[in-house]
Amino acid sequence: MTGPTDIRETVRRRYAESARQIALSGAGSCGPGCCAPETRPPDEADVFGASLYPGEEAAAAGAALDGSLGCGVPTAVADLREGETVLDLGSGAGGDVLISARRVGPSGRVIGLDMTAEMLELARRHAAEAGVTNVEFRQGYLEDIPLPDGSVDVVISNCVINLAADKDLVLTEAARVTRVGGRFAVSDVVADVDMDEATRADLAAYTGCIAGALTEQDYRDALVRAGWTDVQVQPTHRVHEHARSAIIRAVRG
What we know:
The protein is about 30% helix and about 25% strand. The chain is an alpha/beta fold. Strands 1, 2, 3, 4, 5, 6, 7 and 8 form an eight-stranded mixed β-sheet that branches. α5 (about 165-175) links the parallel β4 and β5 (about 180-190). α1 (about 5-25) crosses α4 (about 115-130). The longest helix has 22 residues, at about 5-25. The chain is globular.
C-alpha cells in the first residue's frame, strides 16, 4: 500500500518539475501527467488550465496563469469582498492569489500556501512583476496550515485538495483557520461512485487529480465532519471517464 508520505512526495516532485519547466520556458501547459489525463473526453479539449478563466480574470493574473493546473475558477464564485483575508490552498504559480488580491483591495490580504519551493519562487516572482503588495506566500502542508485559528475569511483552492492523502485533516485545518461565518469556495475533482479500483490504485494518477478524488457524497460528509455547514456541490464539466470538476462551497459553522 502507498502511504501518505509517498503520495505527498510523488505530487511534490511532479509539481516541482512543472514549476521548473514554466520558469525555463516562460509558459506552461497542463498535458498528460499533471491535471490533464490522457483519458479525458476527446470533445473536452480544455478541461484544465488557464483556458477556463474568462478574460477579466486572466488579465488580473497575467503570466501566473500560464502554467495553471486547475480544474475551475474558484475566484469567480468565492464572492470576495473588499478588506477580506483569503487563503489559497495549493497556490501554485500564484494566479488565483493575484486575482483575489485585486478583489479584496489594498485593505485586504491574500495568503498563498504551497508545499513546493519551486512553485513558491515562481509565485513570488509573478507577484513582484505584477506590483501586487497585499499578498504573501508561505511554504507548508494543507494538513498543517501555518496560520492561527480564525485568521481568514475565505478559503479557496483549485484542483488541489483531491491530491491530499488525508482530506479530512485538510478540511478540518481549513475550518480551524477560518472565522465563524467564513466561506469555503474551491474547484476540485469529484469522483463518480463507480470509479474502478485500478484507477484509484494508480499512484501516478494522483498527479493527474483523479485517483485521490472523493465522491460528491463523501466530500459533503467530510466537510460536515470538519465543521462546515450549508455545503453545496455544483458539477461543472467532465474531466475523466470516472470524474468531474465541481465548485464546492460551504460556510464555517
